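Our collaborator T.R. sent over the components below with a one-line note: 'Predict the complex.' Nothing else. No constraints on interfaces, no templates requested, no preferences about which chain binds where. So this is a plain run: every listed entity goes in together, and whatever single assembly comes back becomes the starting point for the next discussion.
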Amino acid sequence: MTTTAPPTGPVATNPKIRTMSRASDMPKRRGGRFPSWVPPVIVFIVILAIWYFVSYVLLDPARSFLVPAPHVIIEEAFLDPKVLGDIMGALGRSAGVALTGLAIAIVIGFVWAVAMSQARWIERSLFPYAVILQCIPILALVPLIGFWFGFDFPARVIVCVMIALFPIVSNTLFGLQSVDKGQRELFQLQKASRWTVLLKLEFPAALPAIFAGMRISAGLAVVGAIVGDFFFRRGEPGLGSLISNYQSRVQGPELFAAIIVASLFGVVVFLVFGWLGKLAVGRWYDYSK
Amino acid sequence: MTLTTEPPAETTTTELLHFSDVAMTFPNGTTALSGVDLTVKKGEFVTVVGPSGCGKSTLLRIASGLTPATAGETNVATKRIGYVFQDATLLPWRTVQANVELLAELNGIPKKTRVAEAAKAIELVGLAGFEKQLPRTLSGGMRMRASLARSLTLDPELFLFDEPFGALDEITRERLNDELIKLFTEQQFAGLFITHSVSEAVYLSTRVVVMSGRPGKIVETFDVPFAYPRDPEIRFTPEFAELAGEVSHALRKGHS
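Returned assembly:
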């Protein structure tokens, strides 16, 4: 029976990324006797070893600030209340920008996709612009956005929205259109209205794709927040300007600490949206397929 | 929903479905059906057998109103039409109970009534106890039962089946055939059933209609004399074999 098969997978999603957290479900190959968390930890230790090797053996001591050893980063940056305070403040501001931008992108993207799903002519008129939006190097537009909207919070949010919008639009549209033909006819036979079909059939069917899109967009919104910050160095610094400052002042450990925090923020956002998606549709939709 | 267990009334003159010289030509020029005359009355279970692509399913789509015919006349004397698709077409995010309630819900039946009707239908198809399960946890046969139950909530007078058991294994298919006969004798709907299995056709129906290959035409009609409820063992009687043989023969003739 093929009907109940869920959409084959949202577009613009790398299936490898989507199955990343499901290592334990994968078919057993060699080395399957360790718990699933062991291999990544081993890799982490190897990375740390290489890091120390580069820091202490490969680099001349005078140049070791280029790759400060992990414990140096912890001692000089994370354990320094002033530095940690700066980084956390910047993280808070960047997170505010990223999440605001993401929320706006979700709303605009969803409305855009629903509009396109309602009529062929709307899709034909609007989809090319979604693609163009995706193709424009947003970085090229950032100075223009600053030129028009100033260099503060709103401009940064706009950068986030522009970067995060496309996956929401394309995944939502794909999800809405992936509804099984038989299920559509089932509704048609009961003379269900366009609105009922959207609400009771297309929207629930699209949820897995929508959440997959949100997860991609969440990651992009973080990128957008940091990029925007690089350009618009006004007001209190976000992670972008902080990283840029540390770099120009040759503060190696602080620079690394800020980069690590930015990366962790990206990972956390990715995981949270993955978890939200699972919470919403994991009951009936198997993301590993 | 009627729950009487009387056998179907003797064939009355109530025509529920009537095709008169119906033809279907698709926009690409393919003629799927031509000159189809067929009547299904209350108390009848008519099965259409034919080679793949002969337009059998198109006939159901025309009867249900999903696709209008391009020529001829189609009369459907009831609004209560059940339609069972080739696939179970259950909504994967709904439980069995919620899936079975769906059609009543789309027809604006109040919550309380449809919950009760769904429960009755679920009971009828033998899915009691599985109400809270999601489709993904059910076997193919159970999904088909849920799909049947969903249509039963409409209390259909005309029941259209589009090869519903084609994807199931032999044993499940035979069990569901028996359940369907039971439903037919209890619910007294008129059935129009599409299949490519001759044995299923003869076993289920009061009448078997054989269609030829494209363009689909009715080449022969056989009345099935066996009384309901039918014993699964009649499949192995000489009379059954003879009739099935004749149907197969007509099918081959129409195909060549």
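Summary for T.R.: The radius of gyration of chain A is 23 Å.
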